[in-house]
Amino acid sequence: MALLGLVAGVTGCSGGSTGKSAGGAQTAPGGGSPSGTPTAQAGAGTLPQLPGQTFYVSDQTSVARQAAALRGQGRTAEADTLQRIAAQPSSQWLGDQAARGIADQVSRRAAEADRTPVFVAYNIPHRDCGLYSAGGAADAGAYRAWITGLAEAIGDRRAWVVLEPDAVAHTLDTCGVKGDAAAERYGLLAFAVQELKKRPQVRVYLDAGNPGWTQDLPALAEALRKSGIAAADGFAVNVSNFFTTDRNEAFGAQLSALLDGKHFVVDTSRNGNGPLDAGAWCNPPGRALGAPPTTGTGRPGVDAYLWIKNPGESDGECGRGEPRAGEFWLPYALGLATAAGGTGAAG
C-alpha cells in the first residue's frame, strides 16, 4: 500500500490563536524542527500511488519508516494504525542548505510516479521569532540565493509550494518583526513568489495564519499584498493547527474577498476533532486526522485540502519535555490515527 507524504525535515509551526506561531498564547510554533535533516534517499523504491490522488505519496517519511520498523518487530497492530497516516500524501518541509538536493530528488520521484509533490519553504530569516522552530537563512541575500536554488531544483516539474508558515502573520503580532524588518520580510516573500512562479508548473500559496490568529483581516490582506500575493496562486490557512475545515473555509472566504478572489488551501492534517481550546496549539491531546488530501473539495475557491503538517511529528517540547519540534512521536501519531471523530482515511 502507498505510504505517506514527503520526508519530514523541518516540520511545523503555525497556529497562533492569540499570536505567536504554532497556535497559541505567546509561545512558539508547532511542528518544525529547525535542526531536523530530511532523509529522502536516492534509489529507495517508490511505492504505489493512491488511485485518483493528485499528490505524491513517499515511502521516506518519518511515519512510513516507523510503520515499517514496527512491522519488522512484529508490532503489526501499531503498524496498521500508523498506515492510516502513512497511506496519505503529506508535505516535504525544506529549511536548510540540503533543500535544493531534496527538492530535486523528491520532485523527480514524484514526476516518475505522475504525481505532484507538496513542498513547504520554511527558511525566512528570524524564523519563528527564535522559538521552538527558530532558525532560517542568515540574511536577506542568503535567503534569495536559497529560494533561487529551490526554484532551479524543481525546474519544469510539477510542484505545489506553501511559502513560509507564520512569516506574514508574525509581522502583525507581538513577535517584533516590525518597521524595516517587516518591510524586508515582505520583499523577500515577494521575491520568493516571483522566483518560484518563473517555473511553469509550480503553484505557490503564501501562508496566512489561521482563524484564531490575526483578527484584523484588512491588515492581513495588506501584508499579503506587500508579500506578493497578486503573483501567487493563493494563500494557505491552518498550517499545523486544529481549526475545523468549516471555520477555515469561512475565514479563507473572508480573506479572499479582500484579495480579489484569491483561492486558498486548508491544512486538514490534524483538524478532525477541531481544536482542544483557543490556546492549546502545542501537542494538544485528543486530536484526530482530518480530511485526506484532495483537490476535490467541492468548495469554490478552495483549491485543496492538504496535510501540510506531517501528522505524528511533535509541535515542540511545550514545556512538558515532549520531543523537539518536528521529531516523530509514536504515541501522538497513534492517538491522531485512532481518535474518535477523526475523518482521516484508513490505510
Overview of this protein structure:
61% of the residues are buried. It is globular and about 55 Å long. The chain contains eight helices and seven strands; from the N terminus they run H-H-E-H-E-H-E-H-E-H-E-H-E-E-H. Helix 3 links the parallel strand 1 (92-94) and strand 2. Mean pLDDT is 85; it is low at 1-45 and 341-347. The chain is of the alpha/beta class.
Features:
347 residues, alpha/beta, 7-stranded parallel beta sheet, 8 helices, globular, disordered N terminus, disordered C terminus
Number of strands: 7
Largest sheet, order of strands side by side? 1-2-3-4-5-6-7
**Computed Rg:** 18 Å
Q: What is the overall pLDDT average?
A: 85
The SSE order reads: HHEHEHEHEHEHEEH
Helix fraction by DSSP (H/I, runs of at least 4): 25-40%
Characterize the main sheet: 7 strands, parallel
The secondary-structure class comes to: alpha/beta
Instruction: Work out the helix count.
Output: 8
- What form results from the Cα inertia axes? globular
Sequence stretches where pLDDT stays below 50 over 5 or more residues: 1-45, 341-347
Share of β-strand residues: 5-15%
First-to-last CA distance: 8 Å
